[in-house]
Write a structure and sequence with these properties.
Number of helices: 32
Structural class: alpha+beta
Largest sheet: 7 strands, antiparallel
């Protein structure tokens, strides 16, 4: 199966979206199709052995729309809002021309009703034909300017897939045709001297309704197009972060090249204020990197030789040489952009409701309009009155707001998540996250730092501690397990020389065995010792005492005899307890899974306040436990590092990978946290709930609007209350409904994680140095990491100043080695093009 992406043209409402999906889904070999109205894109999963892209395009075209396949290069480099910006410009141009003709048309038709004098040439019975023909001449250009409503609308009617344009076209065309008919009847009666009959037709001309309907719809479309730009603003900012050039070293010379021309293996320079052109590894020097644009970390991170740097991050200080590991098109930034775009273009299950409604909505509206026309004629009302009712039904019922309700909220929500360093892969996972009631946590690397350290060791029998550590370090040198690294790292730090290991064997969830210096070395947990027949009863009490303090005991047997115990501890992350408390406040139960012994697991559970803990687990046990929880009716999220926990991440209702930039995490998880901060998982759940609330609000108001608007337009309340809707007001209401839905979705940009103040306070505390003065400068105008890099550079250029700049709270945190006047600091930032709002 292959996933293909297409641009789709000609869609104007949710009915269009439903028709395209229906047409493509009928193509033999198409497994799944997802059409996004807001982005005008389509994703298709198909069997290449049965069908191809051209067959999909043909199906779209046969439904009355246009399509073209998006290539890989286009998908990674094109701005996600370029089409919307182009649409906005075209709409603006059409709007101004339409308004230019509508104003005189409206003045001639309605001026006398507002007691505004009109030229005598348009007044009086003798000038009725001049009055009518002038309206006709002013209306024709408006129709020509907005003719696409008619061409698209009637084309879709012919294809038996009526859409919003069909409703507009029918309403405007009915108004215009009836007005032309009335104009001819005026001429007929005037030629026969029957001015009274001619005047009756003059009073029922609808030229201004036709022109106003088209213009107001265009107003709504223009505002909608502008709103679309804003919904994709976060993605557009990510695209703009990509640096244009890089300085590489080739043939021992420095040269500036376009960022996309930096190849894998090239060495590029990174100086203060410069952006990282592609993912790479430091091979010389050191620097401090601002990763806020990608991970949301407001505090710059120190990088040394061997550390990775990600594309689009900005150096806040230092000098380094970096070797390119991934080209710009394959970099972390490109992956993030692709993930956010895919999530924005995907469809949440809740959107299926709108799709089902939209698929039958337009034909029903046309039927209601015809019934309204016939009923009012049968009741004895004039054709002009009945036509007015039918036109009102057509123009107020366009299902734009239904089609925009879900994708606008999804796009804003996923873009907002990206600002926090949270990557949401699909709309479905974003929706599912809001219903999570149980969070399953991996211990190592999730609740803890994931960097265990050897705390102490005890040796028994003929062995001393030094010899024990040497044998253990040598045996563990073949393992990549974190506990093994704790042992080998300790040996390296303390200068313990290791010997070669032979016959290395690893037992999953148990430990390892190897032959070192002719001795059989066995290192692992109680299960491994019991299975190997090693008696550890004499030291179990000691092991339990250390385990109660959160330390992990590793038993060591040499030649099948107990030789010692290693005690390893993994430091708990500072933010883990806060995150667990956040889950509790959100009504979510927490369960920690670990391969450690029960004593160690219980110690961590007590420190963090975790609801449940399962210990001494094999890797495959985690997925089994998640299935058990799901069978109990729970909605489960699994949070792990995305490597060892891949099966569990896939099994859970929502898999959340914690850790920046791991390819395997991106593959196996539904949500990726770019920072190794468990609090971001809490933020993801809160954001999901806000997005779902927003979607339900949008759908509610869209459905209520149509439920009330159609009866009002059809004249249901006319007999009882005398309420009658003018088609012009119907068109205005329809346009405003779509704008209101998009505007409501944009409120998600105001979402706060609830940790902003804590982050600011923590950042101030990290910069406290005895004997040095601190200042906090509030800066206006910083929009991205390039801005923070510039401000950092100009402040650090001042003698005696060390500054770190936070994009999150728009502040520069300044440490002074000597007295520097506020005016000097302020001038440096102001000269760089930013506004200083205050220094304290």
């Amino acid at each position: 199966m292959k996933k293909l992406k297409f641009n789709v043209t000609g869609m104007s409402c949710a009915a269009c979206q439903a028709h395209v999906e229906k047409a493509v889904s009928k193509v033999n070999g198409v497994m799944d199709v997802n059409v996004n109205l807001l982005a005008n894109k389509m994703t298709v999963d198909l069997d290449e052995g049965v069908t191809n892209a051209q067959a999909v395009i043909n199906a779209v075209e046969s439904a009355g729309y246009g399509a073209n396949e998006i290539g890989d290069k286009e998908n990674k480099t094109a701005s996600p809002v370029a089409a919307a910006q182009d649409e906005s410009k075209k709409m603006k141009k059409r709007l101004w021309w339409s308004v230019g003709f509508l104003i005189p048309l409206f003045y001639i038709c309605m001026g006398h009703m507002a007691n505004i004098p009109i030229p005598p040439i348009f007044a009086g019975h003798k000038n009725m034909m001049i009055y009518a023909l002038t309206q006709l001449l002013l209306t024709v250009p408006i129709i020509a300017i907005n003719f696409h409503y008619f061409s698209n609308g009637f084309k879709n009617l012919i294809h038996r897939s009526p859409n919003m344009d069909s409703l507009i076209a029918l309403g405007a065309a009915a108004s215009f045709i009836y007005s032309v008919y009335g104009t001819y009847r005026m001429a007929y009666f005037m030629g026969r001297g029957d001015l009274g009959s001619a005047h009756e037709y003059m009073m029922n001309l609808y030229y201004e309704s036709c022109g106003m309907i088209l213009t107001l719809i265009t107003v709504g479309k223009y505002l909608e197009a502008r709103s679309k730009d804003k919904t994709a603003n976060a993605v557009n900012k990510l695209v703009s972060l990509a640096p244009k050039t890089a300085v590489v070293i080739r043939d021992s010379e420095e040269m500036e090249v376009p960022a996309e021309n930096v190849m894998v293996g090239d060495v590029f320079l990174l100086k203060a204020g410069w952006s990282v052109p592609c993912d790479g590894v430091l091979i010389d020097g050191n620097c401090t990197v601002d990763q806020s644009a990608l991970t949301g970390e407001s505090i710059p991170v120190d990088k040394a030789v061997g550390d990775r740097v990600m594309s689009a991050c900005v150096s806040a200080g230092g000098f380094a040489k970096v070797r390119c590991e991934k080209q710009a098109k394959d970099s972390t930034l490109s992956q993030i952009i692709a993930l956010v775009e895919d999530a924005s273009a995907s469809k949440a299950p809740v959107a299926r409701l709108a799709d089902k409604i939209s698929a039958v909505f337009v034909p029903i509206v046309i039927t209601i309009a015809l019934i309204s026309l016939v009923v009012w004629l049968l009741l004895g009302y004039s054709f002009a009155f009945a036509l007015n009712m039918a036109i009102s039904v057509l123009v107020i019922s366009c299902p734009c707001s239904l089609g925009l309700a879900t994708p606008t909220a999804i796009m804003v929500g996923t873009g907002k998540a990206a600002q926090f360093g949270i990557l949401i892969k699909s709309a479905e996972s974003l929706e599912t996250a809001h219903s999570i009631d149980t969070v399953v946590l991996d211990k190592t690397g999730t609740c803890t730092e994931g960097k265990p350290e050897l705390i102490s060791a005890q040796a028994f029998g003929d062995f001393d501690v030094s010899e024990l550590k040497k044998l253990c370090g040598s045996a563990e040198s073949g393992s990549s397990h974190p506990l093994a690294k704790a042992v080998t790292g300790h040996c390296k730090t303390n200068g313990i020389e290791l010997s070669p290991a032979e016959s290395y064997t690893e037992t999953a969830g148990g430990g390892i065995s190897a032959v070192v210096e002719g001795r059989n070395v066995l290192i692992g947990n109680k299960r491994l010792m019991d299975n190997s027949g090693v008696d550890i009863s004499m030291v179990e009490e000691t092991a339990h005492a250390h385990a109660d303090n959160g330390e992990i005991p590793l038993y060591v047997a040499i030649d099948n005899k107990l030789a010692g115990i290693l005690f390893i501890a993994d430091k708990i992350k500072e933010t883990s307890a806060e995150a667990i408390e956040g889950f509790k406040k959100a009504g979510i139960e927490t369960v920690m899974l670990t391969g450690d012994n029960e004593k160690t697991a219980r110690a961590i559970q007590k420190k963090l306040g975790i609801s449940q803990v399962r210990s001494q687990l094999m890797p495959e046990d985690k997925a089994t436990i998640i299935k058990e929880l799901q069978e109990q009716g729970k909605k489960v999220a699994m949070i792990g590092d995305g490597i060892n926990d891949a099966p569990a991440l896939t099994t859970a209702d929502v898999g959340i990978a914690i850790g920046a930039g791991q390819d395997i995490a991106i593959e196996s998880a539904d949500i990726v946290l770019m920072k190794s901060d468990l609090n971001d998982a809490v933020t993801a759940v809160k954001l999901s709930r806000s997005v779902m609330k927003n979607i339900k609000e949008n759908l509610f108001w869209a459905l209520i609007y149509n439920s009330l608007g159609i009866p009002l337009a059809a004249g249901v309340f006319y007999g009882l209350l005398g309420w009658k809707l003018n088609p012009m007001f119907g068109a205005a209401a329809m346009s405003l409904s779509s704008v209101c839905v998009v505007t409501n979705a944009l409120r998600l940009n105001l979402f706060k994680s609830g940790r902003e103040n804590k982050a600011a306070k923590a950042e101030i505390n990290t910069k406290t140095e005895d004997g040095k003065m601190k200042k906090v400068m509030k800066i206006d105008g910083m929009m991205c990491s390039h801005c923070t890099g510039t401000v950092t550079k100009v402040l650090n250029a001042i003698d005696g100043v060390t500054a770190d700049v936070s994009l999150e709270d728009k502040c520069a945190y300044i440490t002074l080695d000597k007295d520097v006047a506020d005016e000097v600091l302020s001038k440096a930032v102001t000269d760089a093009g930013y506004k200083v709002k205050g220094i304290k």
